[in-house]
């Protein structure tokens, strides 16, 4: 195989990063997160550009003679780094490139006092799950992705927060978030492409004014609810369709670095 250089992403890598990550998912699942949206390449390029200013997201790529063979995307949180995505093109799978990318990603100067690493993996992705388990990741939670039907549209008994900004963001990137205020509270609402509203708070689904407002805003959209397993009330679950299930895994960051280093040494010793 050609030589590969592992390096931080730079401007112009966006198309290759997006292609690599999309390649790792079924087309029906890609539309359920930002990598299925029309402007994701511009968004990735903007994040790469903003890294020097302290952007929370970092990208590390595997450069094979000018083409990207894989990438890893990590997002910094308080004392935690989240492995957003790691993907290797089919021709490079089982070559150890995924391990090399992950090692480079966690060894970079993260700039924060991170002590844990978390990730989500689809529960039917058995190959990836076994790989993470061999590295030392353990299960800490389960999330279910639901398609929830909208109720009838309401009269305008709500208020929108951040709508002009959300519209501008959606026009450019194809995804956005705004705030919906009702008599019961304030709800964060995401939009993905032209098909989905995205809710991650159970309180939004339990507020009839929220779901009726969404039906008034765009009756053609469906609701994607991403919630901890078992939290959706049976009355709503009975009217909903389960689309996917993801597993949250975690481990100590220093322990992962040690395991990846030991694995790299073993590989060199063969």
**CATH superfamily membership of the largest domain, which one?**
Gcn5-related N-acetyltransferase (GNAT)
Q: Label the overall shape.
A: globular
Named at the architecture level, the CATH assignment of the largest domain is: 3-Layer(aba) Sandwich
Number of domains: 2
Strand content: 25-35%
Instruction: Round the Cα radius of gyration to an integer and report it.
Output: 20 Å
> What profile does the largest beta sheet have?
12 strands, mixed
- Structural class comes to alpha+beta
- End-to-end separation in angstroms reads 18 Å
CATH topology descriptor of the largest domain: Aminopeptidase
Please tell me about this protein's structure.
The protein has 270 residues and is α+β, with helices and mostly antiparallel strands. It has two domains: 5-119 and 252-268, Gcn5-related N-acetyltransferase (GNAT) (Aminopeptidase), CATH 3.40.630; 150-239, no CATH class. It has helices spanning 14-23, 27-30, 40-50, 97-107, 126-135, 163-173, 202-205, 208-217, 234-237, 253-268; strands at residues 5-8, 57-64, 67-77, 80-88, 116-122, 138-148, 159-161, 175-181, 186-192, 196-199, 222-228, 241-252. Helix 1 (14-23) crosses helix 3 and helix 4 packs across helix 10. The chain is globular, with a radius of gyration of 20 Å. The two termini are 18 Å apart.
């Amino acid at each position: 195989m050609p030589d590969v250089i592992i390096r931080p992403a730079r401007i112009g890598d966006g198309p290759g990063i997006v292609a690599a990550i999309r390649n790792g998912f079924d087309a029906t699942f890609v539309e359920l997160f930002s990598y299925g949206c029309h402007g994701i390449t511009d968004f990735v390029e903007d994040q790469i550009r903003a890294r020097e200013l302290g952007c929370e997201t970092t990208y590390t790529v595997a450069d094979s003679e000018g083409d990207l063979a894989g990438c890893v995307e990590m997002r910094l949180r308080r004392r935690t780094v989240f492995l957003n995505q790691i993907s290797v093109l089919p021709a490079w799978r089982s070559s150890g490139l995924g391990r090399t990318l992950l090692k480079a990603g966690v060894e970079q100067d993260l700039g924060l006092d991170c002590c844990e690493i978390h990730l989500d993996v689809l529960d039917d992705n058995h190959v990836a799950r076994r790989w993470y388990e061999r590295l030392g990741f353990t299960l800490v939670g389960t999330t279910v992705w639901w398609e929830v039907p909208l109720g009838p549209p309401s009269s305008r008994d709500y208020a929108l927060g951040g709508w002009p900004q959300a519209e501008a963001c959606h026009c450019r990137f194809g995804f956005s978030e705004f705030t919906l205020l009702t008599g019961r509270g304030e709800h964060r609402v995401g939009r993905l492409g032209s098909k989905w509203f995205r809710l991650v708070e159970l309180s939004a689904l339990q507020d009839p004014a929220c779901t009726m407002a969404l039906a008034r805003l765009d009756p053609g959209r469906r609701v994607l609810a991403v919630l901890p397993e078992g939290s959706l009330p049976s009355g709503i679950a009975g009217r909903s369709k389960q689309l996917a299930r993801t597993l949250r895994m975690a481990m100590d960051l220093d322990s992962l670095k040690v395991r990846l280093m030991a694995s790299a040494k073993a590989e060199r010793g063969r």
